Amino acid sequence: MNVQDAIDLNAVVTTPENIRFEYRMAGPFRRLPALVLDFGMRIAIFLAILFFIALVGITGRGLGGGFLFLGVMIAWFALDWFYGLFFETYWNGQTPGKWLTKIRVISVDGRPINAYQATIRNFLRLADFAPMVSLEMFSADAPPMYMIPTFLVSLVCMILTPRFQRLGDLAAGTMVVVNERSWIPPNIKLEDPRVVSLSEHIPANFQMNATLAKAIALYAERRSRIPVFRRLELAAHLAKPLLVRFDFRDDTSPDLLLCALYYREFVSKDAFTNEKRLSLPPPIVSNSLARSQNGLPLESPAEWKPTSDSASLPPILNANPADMDVVSVSAIKAPI
Amino acid sequence: MKIADLVELRRQGWLELERMCDSLQSIKYPFYKNGSMVSRFSALYRAACTDLAMSEQYQLPPATVEYLHRLVGRAHSQLYRSRRFPTQKWVHYIGVIAPQSIFRDPCVKVAFVVFFGLFTLSAILAWSEGSFPGYAERVLGAAQIEGMEKSFAKPLAGNFNQYVTMSGFYIQHNTSIGLQCFALGPLILPSLCALAYNGVVLGATFGYMTRSEVEQGDVFFQFVTAHGVFELTAIALSAAAGLRLGVGLFATGGLQRIESFKLNAERALPIIMTSVILFFMAAFTEGFLSPSPLPYFVKASFAIFSSGLLMVYFVVLGYPRPELSHELATSEDNPWRTIGAGYAAR
């Protein structure tokens, strides 16, 4: 059975391989361009058929005009009712408009839709377009344009259902998901080569548990979008107890420590081979006296405050990029 | 092993799977004749699935996990492609499943009673001018009556070209109306209104034309007799399919509302498909046989023949047969779910 995230617009799908993976769902405003494109496509195909039939009518004198008219009418009927049905069945849940806007119809259980579902959801499209209005309803001398869809039924229905399903989707048990062809992961940059040398000082017997590893990975992925001093503030919560545990100097930049942990855990050794490495004096505090001299009590990491005065930090461990030689290293190549 | 080394180890497989997805999306059946490629693809897919499942244990970074979600999703939709029409089962579906499910559907009965009841009532009201003066004129409008009288003033004649043209028009126009009747079913009222409107107007027309003082009546019946059986049945059936959808919204039978809606859509499908086929047959009859100057005897025979055909289809083929119940019934006690026809929705 598939569950859905409470906050994110993701549909979780469980496959026959007993794997759960996520699809991002397409909302009404992602689907409207596809609808408009499909409408244009249908008109284009109909005009092409008309043109072809007109050509045949001019050149082929032997054929009766009745058959040409029959062809036009059947083409009109088929395009009106069977366009979406045909493409969604044979193009694996996509019509040309959906293909251009990179969305796809799938069943709610994650499998591609079958012919039956495509039939139901396309036949019921008219109910989703309701209520229809005509310009003549508003003023008597308006140009006679009948049947302008307002999409109100589908819009209300999509708002009320967690998977953005319109009536036809509900009846057929389908949903529309975003189908991106490829996806470029965020490039994680650890600008500072001192990360490497700091990571070498982390005790070898230190084992991260899964939660800590995940938190550190999340931090490293997002830190490029966080201002520098906010980084220090955020990282301090995690880094302060670790500094104490590793017996590092208290003025070690928390940001740098988390990067070092990330490097130690997630980055292969080859990532920095071609870059220059800075040798770092060991950040280990030699005795407990030195720590107490720094005036920071052991048990209260909350009192540690990131200082905005960068001059007060030792130059080597200062994480302020202003006085740092930035060696921009994309630590991990795609697809991480 | 460090996570990075693990990722490095797996990355080649992921990238290869991604390349295969690309080529699968661009060509229709690229691996059609290449079995080893298919097995390679599924092996890579399974490996990626395993990596995703083990991502917690491997402690993969979140960005990699998200990449894996996308990759597995893409490969999944290529591996399990959409199921096409079960063409080999169409004969079985049309000949056995559809009449059985139509015969036992109460919505069909309701739609038939509403349509033919209003039709008969309206016809009687319009016919007996003495008792109900002005009924036909009010329902149909003076202009429409005049137009009708004009179009049926001349005896029927036509050429082959005209017949084909008219068939095309009827296919597009009438079948679209039938399908609209079905599509508006979930909103219930539009579907019922369309059915009642058609019943009243058609009944009034028939009743008016039956009046002895209307001279065009002969030509009118010459025209409508042949295709009337198919067309009137098709109208009632299309509304019945719409009604089935709408009823599913409130008569849930203990299911969740959405589940009941889905179930009733499944039940409605054979009804609307039969209706579409009847509309097509009516359109060709209306195009070719009805406007032709053939004697009335031929057209009446065709009407009797078509009624017999429908009787055989709906009553003889549709009469409940206990030996077929296993094909219609499922674990959810659903007499309409058609496992035999390959339409199982789950």
Give a structural overview.
The complex is a heterodimer of chains A (336) and B (346). Chain A has 336 residues and is mainly alpha-helical. Chain A has two domains: 22-178, no CATH class; 194-323, no CATH class. Chain A has twelve helices and six strands. In chain A, strands 1-2 form a two-stranded antiparallel ribbon. In chain A, strands 3-6 form a two-stranded antiparallel sheet. Chain A has a two-stranded antiparallel sheet with strand order 4-5. The two termini of chain A are 29 Å apart. Chain B has 346 residues and is mostly helical. Chain B folds into two domains: 3-79, no CATH class; 105-317, no CATH class. Chain B has 14 helices and no strands. Chain B has helices at 3-26, 35-53, 55-58, 62-79, 90-103, 106-127, 135-140, 142-151, 160-183, 189-210, 217-250, 257-289, 296-316, 325-328. The longest helix of chain B is centred in the C-terminal third of the chain and has 34 residues, at 217-250. Chain B is elongated, with a radius of gyration of 29 Å. Mean pLDDT of chain B is 80; it is low at 329-346.
Concise overview:
Chain A is 45% helix and 7% strand.
Tags for this model:
heterodimer, A: 336 residues, mainly alpha, 2 domains, two-stranded antiparallel ribbon, two-stranded antiparallel sheet, 12 helices, 6 strands, 7% strand, elongated, B: mainly alpha, 14 helices, 74% helix
How helix-rich are the residues of chain A, as a percent range?
Answer: 40-55%
Compute the number of helices of chain A.
12
- What kind of assembly state do the chains in view correspond to? heterodimer
Note the main sheet of chain B: none
- End-to-end Cα distance of chain A, whole Å, is 29 Å
The 3D shape of chain B can be described as elongated
Give the strand content of chain B. under 5%
What gap, in angstroms, lies between the N and C termini of chain B? 42 Å
SS-based structural class of chain B? mainly alpha
